[in-house]
Amino acid sequence: MRAGRGLLLALAAVVTGLCGRPAAADSATRVTAEAAFEAAVTQLVRSYGPGGAASDLSPDDVLVPLRQAGLIGRSFDGTWDYYAWVWPRRPLSFLGHPVELVITEEKRGAFIGCCVDDGVTLVLRDSGDRAALQQFADDLRCRLDDASSDSRADEALKRSRPKIDPATRLALKCHFGVINQ
């Protein structure tokens, strides 16, 4: 009986492998989605800067390529006031740094009184070489800090599972107010 079960499991694995998408396709999809995500963030941030070209892109729109590739869920993982966040479901990187969390901020629903600062904050695991990330921040007037210094990131990370210490993560903050200060 044990040999029959082993054969059945082996056949199931072969059928699943033939019916499922190959790993190379998943990897190509992820790389394509990451490039589209990076381009969308860049386009959005450039539109906020001095002399920036108007864009129809909203902060939430930068999430579209990630949703289409299945790298994030179909809806937000959390919301608070004007911002919302998503946790990557599969590996995702931005300029070589693993993305732990993507936070978008824009007016959602009713106006609550003040302080909408449209933009995107990326919480990243520091992979060591910050040169490209710092260059991106400098060129587009974003701010790169420890995640503990950003109230949006701090609030979302408090709700993370497992708990992530914000002091051990980077926050790339690309919001209208940061860019134009």
Main features:
disordered N terminus; single chain; 7 strands; 6 helices; alpha+beta; 181 residues
Describe this structure in words.
This protein is an alpha+beta fold and 181 residues long. It is built from 6 helices and 7 strands; from the N terminus they run αααβββββαβαβα. Strands 1, 2, 3, 4, 5, 6 and 7 form a 7-stranded antiparallel β-sheet that branches. It starts with a helix and ends with a helix. Strand 1 and strand 2 form a beta hairpin. The chain has helices at 2-19, 23-48, 64-68, 131-140, 151-158, 176-179; strands at residues 78-80, 83-86, 93-94, 97-105, 119-125, 143-146, 169-175.
* Tertiary shape: globular
Care to count the β-strands?
A: 7
Low-confidence stretches: 1-25
Biggest pleated sheet: 7 strands, antiparallel
- State the separation between the terminal residues, measured CA to CA: 72 Å
Overall structural class, as computed from helix and strand content, comes to: alpha+beta
**Over all CA atoms, what is the radius of gyration?**
19 Å
Average residue pLDDT: 80
- The number of helical runs is 6
Secondary-structure element pattern, one letter each: HHHEEEEEHEHEH
Strand portion, in percent? 15-25%
**Fraction in helix:** 25-40%
Secondary structure layout plus pairing:
Blueprint: H1 2-19, H2 23-48, H3 64-68, E1 78-80, E2 83-86, E3 93-94, E4 97-105, E5 119-125, H4 131-140, E6 143-146, H5 151-158, E7 169-175, H6 176-179
Antiparallel strand pairs: 1-2, 2-4, 3-4, 4-5, 5-7, 6-7
